[in-house]
């Protein structure tokens, strides 16, 4: 895990400026949805993932440090968390949380606590 949860890991294969919208997102134990929005901003990079029917159409915000590998040919992103860890993350509401520093801090703590793969123990 990188020191900053809002930055991509150097080994993830992320290329700045790449449009990740529509990429499938895979947790360690299965698919969690598709990228609906993302940010490449240095120190504030993240993915907004539309979970579809998996958790009833909710969106989740994943800090960039959760990304372990990007496969541009298959348009897939692999994250270092289980579906359960993603599901149990602080709830995300796009209108309320995208610019909310307090929410970012809460999410950063959740994914950056040093537990296995950065999330709370399952």
From TrEMBL:
Q: Which domain of life is it from?
A: Bacteria
Please list the GO biological process terms of this entry.
photosynthesis, light reaction
- InterPro entries given for it? Bac_photo_RC_H_C (IPR014747), PRC_barrel-like_sf (IPR011033)
Give the GO cellular component terms, alphabetically: plasma membrane light-harvesting complex
Parts forming coiled coils: none
Do you know which SUPFAM superfamilies this protein is assigned to?
Answer: PRC-barrel domain (SSF50346)
Q: What is this protein called?
A: PRC domain containing protein
Species this chain originates from:
Streptomyces roseus
The organism's taxonomic lineage, starting at the top: Bacteria, Bacillati, Actinomycetota, Actinomycetes, Kitasatosporales
